[in-house]
Write a structure and sequence with these properties.
Blueprint (H helix, E strand, L loop, with lengths): L1 H76 L5 H6 L1 H13 L5 E5 L4 H11 L9 E5 L2 H10 L4 E4 L14 H19 L4 E3 L4 E3 L16 E5 L11 E8 L3 H16 L4 H11 L5 E3 L5 E3 L13 E3 L6 H10 L13 H13 L13 H17 L4 H5 L10 E2 L4 E2 L11 H4 L14 H7 L4 E6 L4 H13 L6 E7 L8 H7 L5 E7 L13 E4 L4 H11 L3 E5 L2 H11 L5 E4 L3
Parallel strand pairs: 1-2, 1-4, 2-3, 6-8, 9-10, 13-14, 13-17, 14-15, 15-16, 17-18
Antiparallel strand pairs: 4-7, 5-10, 6-7, 11-12
Amino acid sequence: MEAEIRLRKSAKNANQEEIRDAKKKKKEGSSIENFLFRSLFSRIALILFYSFWFLFGVLVLRKTQNAIAAVRYVKSNSESVSLRLIEESREFADLIRILDKKFPRPPALFLLNQHALNMTDNFLCNTATFPGAHDRFIFVTLDTVARDTIKKRWPNIQQFHWPTPSLYKPFSFAEGAYQTIYLLRSNIALALIKKGKSFWMMQQDTFWRKSIFDLNFEDDMSYDAIFDQLGEEDSLRTEWVNGANFFIRANNDTQLFFERLSDKLAHWYTPDMGVMIHQCHTWKKPTCAYVPHKFIYSWEWMYTGQKNPPYLMQLDCETDGGSKLMQLGRYGFHFVNQDGTCNNEKIELAKQRMENGTVEVKMSQNLPSWGRLQFKAYWWIVEYMLSTPIIGHYLKPYLAMYTPTAVGPNWFEVPIKIYPMGRFTSKLDGIKSLEFRGPYGISEAARIRKVRRPMFIAAGTGIAPFIRIIEYLLEKDDDDLMILLVYTVRSFSDVLFLENLKNFGKFWNFQIRILLTKEEEKNNSHPLMKIENGRLGIENFNKIFDEFNALEVVVCGPTAFEKDICNFCSAFDVEFIRFPP
């Protein structure tokens, strides 16, 4: 019996040892599998890591090679597009005579070679629906095919024929020929400025819903140049020059602007709009202004809520003429019949789709082109950089600020303009708390109080910081303090803080003048406000300044607006203050 018990124990112990051995082997096997998996994962991660940087390095080397080749191409062909050759040519002398004789208004110049003829024909069909538009067009034709085709198809449009062998072949963005055409455009602009000729520079990869000439931008003397701009209305890229459609007023400041532009384009690998952005934001003169997005917008408008259709929409997301025309057709903006005639019915339908906000952009029908993907990626990187602390501050010379307009013991109100498709607006709902940082208080108002005759000038939302300051000044009721507020808005419906302004008007020492930049009937008159139609140009400013006899000018508004007021003030012995400082 004892032997049987011992045998059973031995068998049990043997079974337990076998189980332990099996578990041990299983654990060792699992450890080996984990080790192999980790090793394999580490290898894949390393391969991906090194592959990424290898690919990045290859792309950098390729871009560097392309840049070197492009600069060499420009230098080897720069004489054929040089300022000297243009100014000394018989063709340019003929152009000046034509401008003197046939162009009472500034012309619009377009550059064209034979490879963009189809797109140009489509553009001219579109713009032919606007009376007088073609009378202001001048095409700089770069080869005989382009010259002869335009002359046959559109005989009434003026040409400046400048045959340029280096621009005969098709070319794409950032290539040597593309850089060369930048230099040619800049030198033509410079030659016209030196002859005292103001002008528009335009591109034909654009759909016109209305004529941009109807807005008479060239009559506004408050700026020297007005450019189309990148991005959207509330984008960080606003007031960045797009460079497709812009107006230049001929004067000494714009001459220097284009002299420096040509110098840089002849030696640097850069688009002309990059240089324009830098010079507009770092030079005091010339005064640069920007066409509002409601008048000129890029292809990005179609991917918004399609509200407030612009006058002009540019398809600037493609890298060559063929792609651009193809994209125009997909969106319903191709207007040339097979027999070469213009399809006016399609043109009117395209205008209606824009006005109704029904331009079709289904991804199944309009897959993003390679050009558009590149631009979207590039602009995403740019906006990320602009939003980065410290770096963004130096890349963008202005940042958004919010000013309290009413303050209590434990609260204050901050006005924020709402945009239906705005990125910040969309984040307002659901926010539980916000952090604000200084400066706080009314130290600036206390300083202005000592001036005795301050003149506040505001544009649009720039009125916000002045509400609290003026309220503080009026509460003091000083006998020798006189205040003038000049407020420019597009229309009376755009006036902000109207009730505050009406209350301010009841004070004996407060005056307000509201300038409406969009012409409208004077049916919004108010006994305590002076309401006028017109912009705040140099003549208006001088008249208002002299009447009030201001001792200090405090301004808040868009960068270009502040530059204008600064230039106006330079003619007077008066201190000029930007707000916020």
